[in-house]
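Response to reviewer comment R2.3. The reviewers asked that we include at least one raw input/output pair. We reproduce the pair for non-specific serine/threonine protein kinase here without editing.
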Amino acid sequence: MERVLGSGGMGRVYLASDAKLPGKWWAVKETMADTADYERIENEARMLTRLRHHSLPQVVDFFAPDAEGRVFLVMEYIEGSNLDEYAMMAGGRLDIPFVLELTLRICEVLEYLHAQDPPVVFRDLKPGNIMIGEGGSIRLIDFGIARSAGPEKSADTVKLGTIGFAAPEQYEGRSDPASDQYALGALLLYLCTGGRFSEWTSEAQRALRSDMPPVLLPAIRKMLSHRREDRYGSIEEVKRLIRPNDFGDGEQTAGGVGSGTSTIAVLGSFPGCGATHTAIAAAHALAKNSGRTAVVELGRTAGAFGRIALEWQGEPLKGQPMFSIRGVDYWPSADREKLADIFGRGYRHIVLDLGTCSDARDFEEFLRADIPLIVGSASEWRSGELVAFAHRESLRVRPKWTYVLPFANDEAIRDMRRRLGHKRVYAMPMLSDPFGSDARECLEPMIGTLYMRQARRPFLKLGFR
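Raw output as returned:
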């Protein structure tokens, strides 16, 4: 062994010279193994030796556990820089064409791995495990935790991966090809936010670089879905979406992804509390002075937006995906796939009407929003529902959560602030016309920070920091 190339929780990687072939070098991965895992590790090591792909180092040998329980994988030594190092040498900002080509090549090698029988799951895709060689060649390295994903492998024996890039199911000890897709989405988000974010949040969305192709936004969101069922069906689908010839010259239009999209999520504590009324009022208040706005009715098959369209247009929607009222685009009964498409359309603001949020996946959107609004009631017989909700969600409550009480008086607001232990509790007066402009002043304490955001954003300069 010449020297240590790297080390981590799984063990170490050494640079070793070949005793029989002068000048030939190998990378030797040392891992401590539990006795119960010896057979599995050996079977999967033999599987790795059969893999042949130009973007994978060749695994040439495996040494069974020694007396101390150490196992060794011997693989081709790859010279070059990992992706983080390469970005630093490039001045901290990678060109979008390079990012797209890199992503396509990663898709190709993941396709190859997932096509094995049983599929091979890489499980630790991250910048440190992507090597950039001469001429821009790429290799995925560190197969210490890759494993097959046969039907009998419903649960992995250990929880592996890197925090920030590992899929949620890996923390529960499970992984499959969709886990690699999540990591690829995290990697793309990392590259498109200047190395600042690998998990989707509203802050991450605002940090997206200005030259990012618009189609990448919904693609990244979908890949980063917490539920594997909500991601793409395969890496092949991802590859079709991100081919460079789909993007044109990459320029953004005004109000596009580069400027960022602000989100308001409105959740009702009980049916009929006024969540839809509040969402519509917020959307029209924003659209009047601060940019292109959409209001989305999420996850319902027959909701209020259909009735609004009938009243406004005089006829049913008849399959119409969207209609507009006074400068606001209304998207009725949108599913999660449609939501990803809406986020890619360059809106300045998107208001989500979540109803009572019966679907846990919809609650993810509430947690992600820039401004999450919870609509309840200050009446004696309904106020307890709002307090119960806050106590039930106490572990997830954020300081920016805002509670809205329609028609509440000052005394009721003070009482609810005391009961909730939360300052952001406001009254919503009667709005005779939520489609008009009279809502702006009463919504100022709740969403006023968004009114001026359009003027500030274009001056941001994004990149690796």
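The first helix runs from residue 38 to 49. The longest strand covers residues 25-32. Further pairs are available on request from the corresponding author.
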